[in-house]
């Protein structure tokens, strides 16, 4: 079914994309996709501007904003001093007055300097003001682990931000996700947290005609079934989608259980329906994330399943695969041991499917 | 208790002397200065402001005098008196338990909010702290909407969703009402940023002001904001309302340096007598002009005083003595000052002022009654509204797909 036109590195099996004509499909890295998303939205609406450390003249610490300064100039692409609390608050005030800032955190670790502004000045504002003052702002940057960046530069913030009413939280996996969610976030009239992943920036994915169009937007609040399966559901987001898909292929190749992979895309609002329907289909579920286990996204998936009628379809309890419950160490073996690996997913799938209900 | 440097301005008063007050810009019109005579003057009077200002890193300064018409000064008096009566009402209502939670009163500081409002355009943006009732009143609010909100009623300023610290009025460029000490300052910088971004070349920019207390003044995020304001020459005013106490801690116990108008380092500053509404107005005229022309930000320090404690849970006497409070009331009260000024300028006599006060007291009482006649917001839909915005406009509610409630069975699905 897949034409030989498909080549590159990690190929997600997606029935929908495969059915399309492949003539105009091109490979685009996640980095390029984010850049395009921001560029197109800046072109579309002159109220959109981007600020952060090194976003302008340096072309972006991770080159996400490459070329934007040359194109839009210093009014709309702004290098800030290293003062997150100050420039985040400033961007929020600008959003109160109907500008549409995109705030880059060089990594989400530095957002902790500004978290009071994000939560108390942005997320809660529309509610506290009974609908008087909205805050159309995007906060973006790389989240979670990198390679050897150690404890203070490797934290995943999905759980913290996704617990806050008033925020929307998205986490792209593929280039299509990255571009579509960025455009949706910028067009959204609420504060949106975009959790990118540094180790995905260089990964290329095919982007269809449709995904390349300037109107292409991925709706916030809807998950995507990256791979259909029948025996186990893996609910995950960001880089771990790739890991889940890799594990699924490995299991398929060895004649093992058939795995369905859900790419959440949005952590808040969570697409409860997609998760529940998939679990009703397979009866077994794994949540997969790199963040710490306590009060993580997996905890939320477990709770929501217990609160839904999907509970009645479960043949086994949910299992979480998470980052280790330690600050991130530096040494390679320690770092690898702190993060989910393919074999962790494979073993968990086997463990789940080896449980049999006594008839 | 009070830093000696601040004391000089704190205790000095700028009273229009009889001679200065008698300057008439309208030649030939003589009004009998005898007390008791009905004054019908609509002249402009020039008032002396000598000693009201200290400047820092500035070659220019606010004027030593201000001209004001009877109408204007009466307007300021009426607004200030309304503010005073409103805050006293809040005190009574809080003690009667009609108001819950936090309640931070502004009585004593009325001249600051009134003077800033007088100097500003409606298009200038304003953000302040949780001590925001009077600013909310000045910027499009009413006693009924303020008290209504404090009573937790749906006709309150923010439909009972915000409470004492969260008044907003975007149409009047009033952005709160913010509860986290100091956090309003970077947000205020954002208001200035937007004014700068949207500025028309060749015209002065609209300005933005963030008001905060001496207690907040040492926050790092304020310097972060000042740095960016100065770097990018944003039309930003950093306004310290120095009432000499951060909650229960006096300035010499919380600040190693309390010349707050100098805290911008290289950024110019003006210290003003915040108990004199005329001085505040003239001072802010000067500051707005400087900042709006693109000269960069300015620090403003208002020397002022709050009669109440930090909040209604603070009697305000464990860390300052009653003599200080009484002395301020008897020698520096901003309302008494305006009344005296009105009389000495020949704009009104004691009887007219008394009648005005009586009328305002009655109006305030009626507004409070109106506020009480409203009802609390209903759970449906108010608990669930305005978590998200659909199109960013006023009251464009977007329900989240799922709102979990304490009892899961009561959760909402949209």
TrEMBL record, chain A:
Localization terms from the record: Mitochondrion
Q: Which GO terms describe its cellular component?
A: mitochondrion
Establish whether keyword Lipid biosynthesis is in the entry. no
**Swiss-Prot/TrEMBL GO biological process terms:** pyruvate decarboxylation to acetyl-CoA
Name a GO molecular-function annotation.
pyruvate dehydrogenase (acetyl-transferring) activity
The record's EC number reads: 1.2.4.1
Q: Which UniProt keywords apply?
A: Metal-binding, Mitochondrion, Oxidoreductase, Potassium, Pyruvate, Thiamine pyrophosphate, Transit peptide
Task: Tell me the cofactors it needs.
Answer: thiamine diphosphate
Q: Which residues form the Transketolase-like pyrimidine-binding domain?
A: 28-203
| SMART domains linked to this entry | Transket_pyr
Answer whether the UniProt record assigns the keyword Lyase to this protein: no
So which domain of life are we looking at?
Eukaryota
Q: Which reactions fall under this protein's catalytic activity? A: N(6)-[(R)-lipoyl]-L-lysyl-[protein] + pyruvate + H(+) = N(6)-[(R)-S(8)-acetyldihydrolipoyl]-L-lysyl-[protein] + CO2
Per its UniProt entry, what is the enzyme's top EC class, as one word? Answer: oxidoreductase
Question: Per its UniProt record, what NCBIfam families does this chain match?
Answer: PRK09212.1, PRK11892.1
- Role: The pyruvate dehydrogenase complex catalyzes the overall conversion of pyruvate to acetyl-CoA and CO2.
Q: What is this protein called?
A: Pyruvate dehydrogenase E1 component subunit beta
**Which organism does this sequence originate in?**
Skeletonema marinoi
From TrEMBL, chain B:
A Pfam family annotated for this chain is E1_dh
Question: A GO molecular-function term, please?
Answer: pyruvate dehydrogenase (acetyl-transferring) activity
- Asked whether the keyword Oxidoreductase is assigned, the reply is yes
Task: Give the E.C. number(s).
Answer: 1.2.4.1
What are the alphabetically sorted keywords of the record? Oxidoreductase, Thiamine pyrophosphate
Highest rank taxon of the organism: Eukaryota
Q: Does the keyword Nucleotidyltransferase apply?
A: no
What region holds the Dehydrogenase E1 component domain?
A: 80-379
UniProt-listed SUPFAM superfamilies = Thiamin diphosphate-binding fold (THDP-binding)
Listed CDD domains: TPP_E1_PDC_ADC_BCADC (cd02000)
Coiled-coil annotation: which residues?
none
Listed cofactors: thiamine diphosphate
**Biological process (GO) annotations?**
pyruvate decarboxylation to acetyl-CoA
Q: What is this protein called?
A: pyruvate dehydrogenase (acetyl-transferring)
Q: What species was this sequence derived from?
A: Skeletonema marinoi
Provide the organism lineage as a comma list.
Answer: Eukaryota, Sar, Stramenopiles, Ochrophyta, Bacillariophyta
């Amino acid at each position: 079914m897949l034409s030989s036109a498909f080549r590159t590195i990690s190929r997600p099996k997606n029935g929908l994309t495969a059915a399309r004509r492949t003539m105009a499909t091109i490979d685009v890295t996640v980095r390029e996709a984010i850049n395009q998303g921001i560029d197109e939205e800046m072109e579309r609406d002159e109220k959109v501007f981007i600020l952060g450390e090194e976003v302008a003249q340096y072309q972006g610490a991770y080159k996400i904003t490459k070329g934007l300064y040359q194109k839009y100039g210093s009014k709309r692409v702004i290098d800030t001093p290293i003062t997150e609390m100050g420039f985040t608050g400033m961007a929020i005030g600008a959003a109160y007055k109907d500008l549409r800032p995109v705030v880059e955190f060089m990594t989400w670790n530095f957002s902790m300097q500004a978290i009071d502004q994000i939560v108390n000045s942005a997320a809660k504002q529309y509610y506290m003001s009974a609908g008087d003052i909205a805050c159309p702002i995007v906060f973006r940057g790389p989240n979670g682990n990198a390679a050897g960046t150690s404890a203070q530069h490797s934290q995943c913030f999905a759980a913290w931000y996704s617990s806050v009413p008033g925020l929307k939280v998205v986490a792209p996996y593929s280039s299509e996700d990255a571009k579509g969610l960025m455009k949706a976030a910028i067009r959204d009239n609420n504060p949106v947290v975009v959790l990118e992943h540094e180790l995905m920036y260089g990964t290329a994915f095919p982007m269809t005609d449709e995904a390349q169009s300037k109107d292409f937007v991925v709706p916030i609040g809807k998950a995507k079934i990256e791979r259909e399966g029948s025996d186990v559901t893996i609910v995950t987001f960001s880089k771990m989608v790739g890991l889940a898909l890799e594990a699924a292929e490995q299991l398929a190749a060895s004649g093992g259980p058939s795995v369905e992979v859900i790419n959440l895309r949005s952590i808040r609002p969570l697409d409860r329906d997609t998760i529940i329907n998939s679990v009703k289909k397979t009866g077994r579920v794994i949540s997969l994330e790199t963040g710490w286990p306590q009060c993580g996204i997996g905890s939320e998936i477990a709770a929501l399943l217990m609160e839904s009628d999907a509970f009645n379809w479960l043949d086994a309890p949910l299992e979480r695969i998470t980052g280790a419950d330690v600050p991130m160490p530096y040494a390679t073996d320690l770092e690898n041991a702190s993060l989910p690996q393919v074999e962790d997913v494979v073993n968990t799938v086997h463990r789940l499917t080896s449980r049999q209900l006594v008839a | 208790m009070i830093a000696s440097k601040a004391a000089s301005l704190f205790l000095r008063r700028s009273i229009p002397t009889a001679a200065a007050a008698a300057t008439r810009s309208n030649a030939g019109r003589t009004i009998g200065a005898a007390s008791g005579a009905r004054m019908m003057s609509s002249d402009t009077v020039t008032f002396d402001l000598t000693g009201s200002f200290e400047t820092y890193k500035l070659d220019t300064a606010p004027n030593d005098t201000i001209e004001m018409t009877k109408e204007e000064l009466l307007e300021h008096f009426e607004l200030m008196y309304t503010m005073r009566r409103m805050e006293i009402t809040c005190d009574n209502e809080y003690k009667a338990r009609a108001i819950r939670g936090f309640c931070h009163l502004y009585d004593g500081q009325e001249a600051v909010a009134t003077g800033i409002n007088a100097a500003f355009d409606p298009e200038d943006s304003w953000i302040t702290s949780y001590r925001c009732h009077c600013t909310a009143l000045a910027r499009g609010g009413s006693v009924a909407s303020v008290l209504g909100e404090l009573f937790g009623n749906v006709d309150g300023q923010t439909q009972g969703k915000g409470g004492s610290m969260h008044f907003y009025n975007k149409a009047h460029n009033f952005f709160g009402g913010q509860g986290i000490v100091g956090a309003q300052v970077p947000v205020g910088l954002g208001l200035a940023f937007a004014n700068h971004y949207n500025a028309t070349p060749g015209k002065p920019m609209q300005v933005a002001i963030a008001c905060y207390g001496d207690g907040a003044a040492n926050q790092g995020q304020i310097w972060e904001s000042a740095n960016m304001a100065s770097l990018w020459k944003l039309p930003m005013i950093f306004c310290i309302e120095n009432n000499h106490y951060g909650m229960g801690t006096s300035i010499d116990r919380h600040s190693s340096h309390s010349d707050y108008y100098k805290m911008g380092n290289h950024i110019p500053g003006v210290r003003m007598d915040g108990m004199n509404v005329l001085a505040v107005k003239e001072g802010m005229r000067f500051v707005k002009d400087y900042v709006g022309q693109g000269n960069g930000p300015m620090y403003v320090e208002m020397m002022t005083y709050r009669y109440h404690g930090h909040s209604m849970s603070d009697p305000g006497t464990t860390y300052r003595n009653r003599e200080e409070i009484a002395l301020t009331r008897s020698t520096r009260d901003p309302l008494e000052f305006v009344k005296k000024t009105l009389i000495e300028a020949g704009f009104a006599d004691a009887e007219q002022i008394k009648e005005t006060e009586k009328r305002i007291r009655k109006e305030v009482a009626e507004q409070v009654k109106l506020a009480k006649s409203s009802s609390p917001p209903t759970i449906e839909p108010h608990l669930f509204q305005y978590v998200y915005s659909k199109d960013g406009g006023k009251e464009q509610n977007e329900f989240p797909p799922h709102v979990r409630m304490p009892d899961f069975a009561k959760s909402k699905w949209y």
